[in-house]
Amino acid sequence: MKINPRSLMASSINSSNHGFNATPMALLPPIPLYRRILRTHRKHLPKQMRLLGDEYVKKEFRSHKNIENPIHIIGFLKEWQMYAQKLEGNEWIGERMDPAKIEKMSGMF
């Protein structure tokens, strides 16, 4: 991923209050985010889920390595950062995945 630092600083994560967040959060660069996700997997997931998650994360980051479109880069990093925050906060336990997101992921293969 070829990152423009300016595009990362202005990004914010959608919150439950109609897409507005009082304090915009800067996105982590790809390598620190990747490491954070793997650490979060080690800390919060059972072994089998961790192995599956680590494999998927590695595959996704490799496949997006040469993306140059800033919109795709920001979207990619934003989704993975929200994922890491969700795991760290244990908000994911018992939560069902959005059917639209499942359909979107299924269409990729």
TrEMBL record:
Name of a matching Pfam family: Complex1_LYR_2
Signal peptide: none
One Gene Ontology term from the biological process aspect of the record: mitochondrial respiratory chain complex II assembly
Keyword Transport: no
PANTHER family in alphabetical order: DC11 ACN9 HOMOLOG, SUCCINATE DEHYDROGENASE ASSEMBLY FACTOR 3, MITOCHONDRIAL
Function: Plays an essential role in the assembly of succinate dehydrogenase (SDH), an enzyme complex (also referred to as respiratory complex II) that is a component of both the tricarboxylic acid (TCA) cycle and the mitochondrial electron transport chain, and which couples the oxidation of succinate to fumarate with the reduction of ubiquinone (coenzyme Q) to ubiquinol. Promotes maturation of the iron-sulfur protein subunit of the SDH catalytic dimer, protecting it from the deleterious effects of oxidants. May act together with SDHAF1.
Name under which the protein is recorded: Succinate dehydrogenase assembly factor 3
